[in-house]
Amino acid sequence: MVVMTQSSIFTRIIEREIPADVVYEDDRVIAFNDIAPQAPVHVVVVPKTADYANVVELAAADPGLLAHVVGVAKRVADERANGEFRLVFNTGESAGQTVFHAHAHVLAGGLAEGTLGSK
Ligand code: 5GP
Fold this sequence. Notes:
By secondary structure, the protein is of the alpha+beta class. It has helices at residues 9-14, 55-61, 63-80, and strands at 22-25, 29-33, 41-47, 86-88, 104-108.
C-alpha cells in the first residue's frame, strides 16, 4: 500500500516549490532566514531529509547529521553576527513546534541576557 503524506513547508522550500532567503546549503542541510524573525539574526537550519520530526528523532538516528546542523549554526553565526548564538529546537506542539520536520533555530545578533525566548 502506498501512503501519501503531505510535504512539510520545509520540504517544499528544499524542493524550491516555495521561495526562501537561503543563506547556506549543502548536500545535507539548508539554512534560510525565518519568515517571522525573533532576533536580529534568525536563521533556520534544516536537514534535507524529512525522516525526523524533531531533534530527538534526529539525534537518535543520525547524530552525525545533528552535529553538522550545529556546525552550520556556528558558521551562520560567524558570518552574520559575532559568532555567538542561541540554538533552539522546539520539540512538540506545547513547546511551540509548528513544523514537524527537524530543524534548529539560530538566534544571534544581540539577545537579552536572562531570557531564553524572545519575551
Ligand atoms: P517551529 O515553530 O516549528 O519551531 O519553527 C518553524 C519556523 O518556521 C517558525 O519560526 C516560522 O516562522 C518558520 N516558517 C514557517 N513557514 C515559513 C516559510 O514559509 N518560510 C520561512 N522562511 N520560514 C517559515
